[in-house]
């Protein structure tokens, strides 16, 4: 093990940057006890995670780039979004990187809906997913030594039952001068795929046809001309949708998300609206103040 | 609905009654909209289920005797259930603490062939459960209450009203310090026993999904 790596690890609590890739509720890595052995054995091989970068030459003073956690998930198994939905538990991680590297908020691709008997609606990832971690490098960064970034990742992986798991993913950037080394074509594809599934803000132009409106405790989302609208709420203790299975999706152009009365105490109400319109699927970020009501 | 006279009227009434009875007793799963009937603040639906040892339990027979009832949705294979029975003895501790005033019932709504089905006797023994595990294999009662996770907790007060629905505590990740951790069920039970209203009657439950039948 390189000396620098060991030093980084030892200094982890104070000296280095620890970013928690946590969902909005701030859930931490969890510790759970063991389920039946055969399921556990299968789960042990169900998830692989790697830490990749879009371009090694980003690691220069004043540089910027994208790190990413890329997951491969065995068939039949799934991981969860930052809002897992009715059951499950999100992917969580801590990053150990040199202080010169500042990570922005993680960018999660829009998940898939997973509906189970009993109207249990979860938000999951299957087969492959990549969570983007944009970063900037401070101008006083001193290139020279090899640069190592470590991600300690934890998850709940489920098939017919659930098994907690985790792994450490490491990325080492060799000593400078940095070469213009882009990610492999496979990894570039993963990054592009993830980018295509990121929500975009609703521009003024978009709001000509994509509107959000509070009607009591219901959030009406209308996409004129759409042939499919689906809402993926962010988790919040106060903004709790009721009956998403029926209200959260349509093959038409509008949905009404009914929230519990506690909605009026929410700071913000957030989620992603997926719109199928003009033969394209697009994802938009909804970020609103709560309704003001007695 | 108009009433008819004579024989046709009697037959019509009988047909209508038969249909009404059939609709009332149809399993919840057969319906397309399986909206839970249990609503916090309203009377909880009554039910009868047989436990893993063959004994029958009816909700109203407990509330009728002045008992508060706690329902714990259960699957012995789920890591979150295991946490509260092995790493901690959250459930049995609470059941023991409030014994005499509270009837604690675990319910397994898992379908045959699914995780945790048929494993309840083993769990009762291994975890020394001081309360029964009721078997709801067709998931009818689970769907009636809207149970989504294991564990998922419901508290019915002495008048049969659903007073609490949600998680066992505020710590899905099991990372909170003792000072930060809140056991929602203990808090609600204390409030009910003190004659107060439950301050947090609905919280987010966490755990594995209930393994309902199709």
Strand count, sense and barrel status of the largest sheet of chain A are:
5 strands, mixed
Spatially, the strands of the biggest sheet of chain A line up as 12-20-19-15-17
Mean pLDDT across the residues of chain B is: 89
Low-pLDDT regions of chain A: 1-20, 22-29
Strand content of chain B: 15-25%
Rg of chain A computed from alpha carbons, rounded to a whole number of angstroms: 21 Å
Number of strands of chain B: 9
Q: Structural class, from secondary structure content of chain A? A: mainly beta
Structure report:
The complex is a heterodimer of chains A (294) and B (214). In chain A, a hairpin with a 3-residue loop joins strand 7 (112-116) and strand 8. Chain A is built from 4 helices and 20 strands. The model of chain A is unreliable at 1-20 and 22-29 (pLDDT under 50). Chain A is mostly beta strands and 294 residues long. Chain A is 11% helix and 45% strand. Chain B has 214 residues and is of the alpha+beta class. A 7-stranded mixed β-sheet of chain B has the order 2-1-5-4-3-7-8. A two-stranded antiparallel ribbon of chain B has the order 6-9. In chain B, strand 1 and strand 2 form a beta hairpin. The relative contact order of chain B is 0.19. The model of chain B is unreliable at 1-5 and 18-32 (pLDDT under 50). Classes of the chains: A mainly beta (294), B alpha+beta (214). Chain A binds chain B through residues 27-36, 39, 86-89, 92, 116-120, 122, 156, 158, 160-164, 235, 237, 240, 243, 246, 260, 262, and chain B through 29, 33-35, 77-80, 82-83, 86-87, 109, 111, 114-115, 139, 142-143, 146-149, 172-175, 202-204, 206-214.
């Amino acid at each position: 093990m390189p000396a620098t790596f060991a030093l980084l690890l030892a200094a982890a609590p104070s000296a280095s940057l620890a970013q928690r890739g946590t969902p909005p509720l701030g859930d931490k890595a969890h510790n759970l006890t063991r389920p039946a052995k055969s399921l556990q054995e299968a789960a042990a091989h169900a998830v692989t995670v790697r830490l990749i970068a879009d371009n090694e030459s980003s690691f220069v003073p004043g540089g910027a780039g994208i790190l990413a956690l890329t997951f491969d998930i065995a068939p039949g198994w799934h991981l969860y979004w930052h809002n897992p939905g009715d059951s499950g538990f999100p992917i969580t991680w801590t990053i150990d990187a040199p202080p010169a590297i500042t990570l922005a908020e993680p960018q999660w691709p829009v998940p898939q809906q997973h509906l189970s008997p009993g109207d249990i609606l979860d938000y999951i990832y299957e087969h492959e997913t990549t969570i983007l971690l944009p970063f900037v490098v401070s101008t006083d960064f001193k290139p020279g030594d090899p640069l190592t970034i470590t991600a300690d990742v934890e998850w709940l992986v489920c098939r017919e039952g659930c098994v907690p798991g985790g792994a450490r993913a490491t990325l080492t950037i060799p000593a400078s001068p940095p070469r213009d080394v882009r990610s492999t074509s496979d990894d570039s594809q993963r990054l592009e795929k993830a980018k295509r599934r990121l929500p975009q803000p609703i521009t003024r132009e978009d709001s000509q046809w994509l509107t959000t409106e509070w009607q009591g405790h219901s959030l009406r989302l209308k996409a004129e001309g759409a042939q499919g609208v689906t809402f993926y709420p962010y988790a919040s203790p106060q903004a709790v949708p009721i009956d998403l299975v029926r209200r959260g999706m349509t093959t038409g152009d509008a949905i009404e998300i009914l929230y519990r009365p506690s909605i009026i105490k929410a700071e913000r109400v957030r989620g992603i609206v997926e719109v199928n319109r003009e033969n394209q699927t697009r994802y938009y970020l909804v970020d609103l103040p709560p309704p003001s009501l007695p | 609905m108009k009433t008819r006279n004579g024989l046709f009227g009697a037959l019509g009434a009988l047909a209508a009654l038969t249909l009404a009875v059939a609709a009332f007793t149809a399993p919840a799963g057969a319906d397309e909209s399986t909206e839970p009937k249990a609503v916090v603040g309203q009377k909880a639906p009554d039910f009868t289920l047989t436990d893993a040892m063959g004994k029958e339990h009816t909700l109203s027979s407990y509330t009728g005797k002045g008992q508060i009832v706690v329902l714990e949705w259960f699957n012995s294979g789920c890591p979150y259930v295991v946490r509260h029975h092995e790493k901690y003895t959250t459930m049995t501790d609470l059941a023991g603490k409030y014994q005499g005033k509270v009837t604690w019932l675990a319910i397994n709504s898992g379908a045959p062939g699914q995780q945790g089905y048929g494993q309840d006797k083993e769990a009762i023994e291994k975890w020394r459960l001081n309360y029964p595990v009721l078997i709801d294999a067709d998931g009818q009662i689970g769907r009636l209450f809207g149970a989504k996770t294991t564990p998922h907790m419901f508290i019915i007060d002495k008048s049969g009203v659903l007073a609490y629905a949600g998680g066992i505590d505020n710590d899905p990740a099991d990372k909170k310090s003792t000072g930060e951790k809140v056991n929602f069920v203990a808090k609600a039970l204390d409030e009910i026993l003190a004659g107060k209203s439950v301050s947090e009657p609905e919280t987010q439950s966490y755990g594995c999904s209930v393994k309902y039948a199709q």
